[in-house]
Amino acid sequence: MDKMNVSESAPGRLVRYDRRSYYKPDPLPPSKRLDLAEEFYELVSEASFWLGKLNGIGLLVEFSPVLYTSLLRKEAMESAEIEGADIDWNALYSRETRSADGSTPETTDNERMKDVREVLNYEMAVEDGIRALDDGERFSVDLLNTLHATLLSGVRSDTKTVGEKRTTPVNLGSFVPPAPGVVEGTMDALLTYIETGGSYHDLVDIALVHYQFETIHPYGDGNGRLGRLLIALQLYENGYLEGPTLYLSEYFNRNKQTYIDRMQAVRQHGKWERWLEFFVRGIRYQAEESVERTLSLRELHREYREEFGGQTRTDARLALSLFEQPYITAGDVKSLLDVSGPTAYRAINKLEGEGILEEVTDKEYGREYRAREIFEILERPPQTY
User: Fold this and answer.
1) Within 10 Å of residue 357's Cβ, how many Cβ atoms?
2) Residue 188: CB partners within 8 Å, gap ≥ 6?
């Protein structure tokens, strides 16, 4: 492995440890004055504007279950993909549908099942974190350990130490994070920085905290997932979001090498400004993405209400219910609308014929259907970059 070179302007130093030198970051805030140009503060203002707009729209929409779940799920899926998971919306919803009706998923692919579990774990961890903050908990080692244990429960992992800080060194290419004996002190300093409110604009401080957390790399595995989750929780705690409707992992996923390079440039040369610009721009882009996706869902919901609202036909009731349950089986329709099996199938067939539902399992029995137009909105690539 190539040795990491660190300049005098770096916000940390190399410390000899065994046969290698580990990187010990300086505590936040950065000791050098940040050279943040007027254009950067304009970017911060834009990001804040779009976060505010996202927050406001989220409070106004009338189909909060699908909005909340789908945008949280999109973040969870993007975060899992960064870690190498291979999963799509159908596999995830199919797993949930089969679990709900008591049937066993057909796949015997253990890795695929663990990928699905990774997404569901992320959703659970975000919700647990928000609940903890609502109950008055603060960002602490105990809270992070709890969330870490949730994230790594039953999934692919490179560590056997779950819910606890690592006890062995790790190497990330040429970068060697702090030695195990240093992790506790550096994490305590980071949590103190979060607790005291930081030194800069909230979005700048969240970017600084994310860099510092990933540089400390406190766990044997799952640091990326927990670090990205921490962004959502900080935005929530600081009042920028009423829920986890910002999926920043999509931006990181599509700019993975830049993400790595900008963070490494801070470690080696103290180039904070380029990292901060990259991070805040991601928030600005993804907030607008969430707004546009939400508006598209709301417009589609309005169209369905105009076409099917006030009607008692089973297919009309089913169409409107798709905004709360966009992935269904005939059994779901029977339970959801309290109708017979033949009536459920007739409603499904009618909506399938109209292009509102599409069958995704391609089999004769146990068919599963999804709301085509809703999933087209959820699955579409970024529109703002």
Assistant:
1) 25
2) 141
Which of 268-306 are b and which e, b meaning 16 or more Cβ less than 10 Å from the residue's Cβ?
bbbbbbebbbbbbbbbbbbbbbbbbbbebbbebbeebee
What is the pTM (predicted TM-score) of this model? 0.90
Instruction: Report whether pLDDT(171) > 70.
Output: yes
The answer to whether the CB of 119 falls within 8 A of the CB of 80 is: yes
Coil, helix or strand at residue 75:
helix
Per-residue confidence at 110, pLDDT binned at 50, 70, 90?
Answer: low
User: pLDDT tens digits for 124-165?
Assistant: 999 999 999 999 999 999 999 999 999 999 886 666 778 899
Separation CA 175–CA 22 (nearest Å): 8
pLDDT digits (tens, 9 = 90+) for 229-270: 999 999 999 999 988 888 899 999 999 999 999 999 999 999
Domains of the chain, each with CATH number or no CATH: 12-27+36-42+56-288 (1.10.3290.10), 309-379 (1.10.10.10)
Could you give the angle at the alpha carbon of 40 between the alpha carbons of 276 and 251, nearest 5°? Answer: 50
DSSP 152-216: TTTS--S-S--SS---S---BTTB-PPPHHHHHHHHHHHHHHHHTT-SS-HHHHHHHHHHHHHHH
If residue 12 lies in a helix (H) or strand (E), which one and from where to where? strand 12-17
In 3-state terms, what secondary structure has residue 217? coil
